[in-house]
Specification:
five-stranded mixed beta sheet; alpha/beta
């Protein structure tokens, strides 16, 4: 699609908004004022700005709807492309070709403003190289708050709303101001909100962060003068006052907004308060561990929000970490490749093609300490006597060494779109590959549920015997959901080390929010049925996964060349 913008003054979006904490909760005016109005400000005041698509249709009145269509549970590829083209032509700082979703547009804008390249398999952001220097520069007054924000956003991509404070003393200054403000409106506040605000003023920001859960979902805690609405309103007002003071007195601000995602900016379910000074003095490992813990907590399906006491976002994982005495986990690596240049096959893959692809991935993963995938090699050596002629030193002996390749774990799609014929074809294909590799298989079926894990022994059994065992295993049915498999693999270090292969028809769209994709998870087609349709679904899946794993196309075994 080609977007045409006329008479528009290039804009810089400002994340600061002050949604009222009284009356019905309606973020629509704030969305209009924050995201839409700046894009429609005319360059020439005597004529309106206009935005049209390739067919000449006027999009000026639909910008807000386009933004909202990018914030659904699944990624809307068409809307994403349209909005990115609009932003690329209307904002001063925006990378139209970014792989990040529109939800992270403030991070992209801040990064472009500070000339930071977009994250990719070849451009990795880390706490040591990016977050720590940006925090030190902001603390010293030589760096921009936008650079600190972009460094955290590009390194960790947290799906939350953040506010930064220069130090714990600056946070204490906000708490004093908050107490004064809440005293003036004490008669209007419900007792529950008053208690939670009092508990909030007892918090300390001496560590790297303090994080709170404020909503169960978008419909929760939206009553007039609820704690979630009052706290965000006060934080935004405080930042606005700090900005006005800094402008009048020509001094640096000591607080600001960290708008990691659009959805959380206008209806936050969690808040993360960030201590810049603590970041500047911390080790890279500590910073990485802290933000990984926040992301782990955000991804947790169980979130308990109390109406009577503050609900800390990271309290459960911190308690579990202390109980298990585990160190903070490091961010998994990413494959380095140019996924966009990968071409899809025009014909269905043969069994040999799939076998070669799986073997290639296994070899690239390397050896492991122990597995069911045993690889024996025999070499000739003069260091050992020949078994048949031990006295003949001119004849070498043989040494057999045992090595272990990663285990193979298969997840077969058994949702409603997969017929029994497709299922049998996929299983028989895997049986033949397992026989050729001479390995056992871990197996799960999945739909929107995940079956229990089973290990199938294939050694010294015929394909018919193995298929008979497969048929005894109950399989689930229903819709399709991939993220449960991602979470299932990531929850176990043992499963993370396996080669995981999802056999599917690719008829699924990923969430619009970032999630951790397992490093060793690959995909294969469930059958050769209607190959052109299968390729179209795989392309759609790959295009909509760019914000989660830009190299996803190279994980589609048997699909690409």
């Amino acid at each position: 699609m080609t977007i045409t913008v006329t008479n528009q003054k290039p804009a810089v979006l400002d994340a600061l908004h002050t949604i009222s904490c009284t009356g019905d909760y309606d973020p629509t005016p704030a969305i209009q004022q924050t995201l839409v109005d700046p894009l429609l400000q005319p360059l020439n005041p005597n004529a309106p700005a206009s935005i049209t698509d390739a067919q000449g249709a006027d999009l000026t009145g639909h910008i807000s709807d386009l933004f909202l269509s990018c914030l659904g549970d699944t990624l809307n590829v068409a809307s994403e492309q349209t909005v990115k083209e609009v932003l690329g032509q209307t904002l001063i700082n925006f990378d139209q070709g970014t792989r990040l979703p529109v939800a992270e547009l403030f991070a992209v804008q801040a990064a472009q403003q500070n000339k930071m390249p977009a994250p990719s398999p070849r451009v990795l952001y880390t706490a040591q190289a990016d977050v720590l220097p940006a925090a030190k520069a902001l603390l010293a007054g030589s760096g921009e708050a936008s650079a600190f924000f972009a460094s955290i956003a590009y390194t960790f991509h947290p799906d939350t709303l953040g506010f930064w404070f220069q130090s714990s003393a600056a946070f204490d200054g906000f708490k004093t101001w908050l107490s004064q403000q809440t005293q003036t409106m004490a008669s209007a506040l419900p007792p529950a909100t008053t208690k939670l605000l009092n508990d909030f003023t007892a918090l300390s920001l001496k560590g790297l962060t303090e994080s709170l859960l404020v909503r169960k979902d978008d419909s929760d805690a939206n009553d007039e003068h609820s704690f979630a609405r009052v706290l965000v309103h006060m934080l935004m007002n405080y930042v606005e006052q700090q900005r006005a003071r800094a402008s009048q007195q020509n001094t640096a601000m000591d607080a600001g907004v960290l708008p990691f995602t659009i959805g959380e900016l206008f209806c936050p379910r969690s808040l993360v308060l960030v201590n810049v000074e603590a970041h500047a003095r911390a080790t890279p490992a500590k910073i990485t561990g802290e933000w990984n813990l926040i992301n782990q907590s955000l991804a947790s399906p169980v979130k308990v929000v109390s109406n009577t006491s503050l609900s800390k976002l990271t309290s459960l994982p911190r308690a579990a970490a202390r109980a298990a005495a585990l160190g903070a986990s490091q961010q998994p690596g990413q494959p380095g490749s140019r996924s966009a240049q990968v071409a899809f096959r025009k014909q269905p893959p043969s069994k040999l093609d799939l076998f070669n692809d799986i073997t290639r991935v296994l070899r690239r993963m390397g050896k492991v300490a122990k597995s069911h995938n045993i690889f024996r090699t025999t070499t000739a050596t003069f260091l050992k006597a020949n078994r048949r002629n031990p006295d003949d030193f001119n004849k070498p002996g043989r040494i057999t060494s045992v090595q272990y390749m990663p285990d193979l774990h298969i997840y077969i799609d058994t949702s409603g779109s997969i017929s029994e014929e497709n299922y049998q074809e996929a299983v028989m294909m895997l049986i033949r590959i397992a026989k050729k590799l001479n390995v056992n298989l871990y197996f799960n079926s999945f739909s929107h549920f995940l079956s229990q894990e089973v290990m199938l022994r294939t050694e010294n059994k015929s394909a018919a015997q193995i298929w008979k065992e497969f048929r005894r295993i109950p399989k689930v049915s229903g819709g399709t959901e991939y993220t449960q498999i991602w979470q299932y693999i990531n929850a176990s270090r043992t499963r993370q080390r396996r080669l995981s292969l999802m056999v599917t028809d690719f008829d699924w769209l990923p969430p619009s929010k970032r999630q951790d994709h397992p490093k060793n998870l690959y995909y294969a087609p469930c059958s050769a049925r209607d190959w052109s349709s299968m390729v179209d679904l795989a392309k759609r899946y790959a295009d909509s996964m760019k914000h989660i794993d830009p190299s996803i196309r190279q994980r589609l075994l048997g699909m690409v060349v």
